[in-house]
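lol ok so funny story. i was supposed to be doing the assay writeup but got distracted and ended up predicting the structure for this chain instead. priorities right. anyway since i did it might as well share w the group, maybe its usefull for someone
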Amino acid sequence: IQNVVNVLNSISKGCPIVFVVDELDRCLPNNAIKTLERLHHILGKVNNAVTVISVCRKQLNESIKKMFGDKIDANEYLKKFIDFNPNFHNTWIHLIRFFEKIHLFLSKFS
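and the output, tada:
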C-alpha cells in the first residue's frame, strides 16, 4: 500500500489527482464497504487529491446495515469517508452549493 501512496504522491506534486468512483451502490454490500475502507486508507494519505463518489445514498446505507446490523447509524458511519453530500434531487440550489464547495475545495490545490 505504501508503494501506491508514494507513487500517487509523486504524481500529485505536478497536478491534483481526482478519483471518481461510480456505481458503488450496485456492488455487493461487502464489496462496497471494503472499497470505501480501502479508498479511505490509501487515498487519505495522498496529498493534493480528491475522491468523488457518485452513489445512491439510500442503497449504500442499506449495504452498511446489511454488513453491521440495523442498529448502526449508516450516515454517521459514512462521515468517515464523505466530507460533504450534495443532494441533486430537489432544486438547482443544491447544484449551485455543490459547485461552490467543489470550487472552495479545489482552490486549496492552486
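The mean pLDDT is 86. Helices lie at 2-12, 29-43, 57-68, 74-78, 92-106.
back to the writeup now i swear
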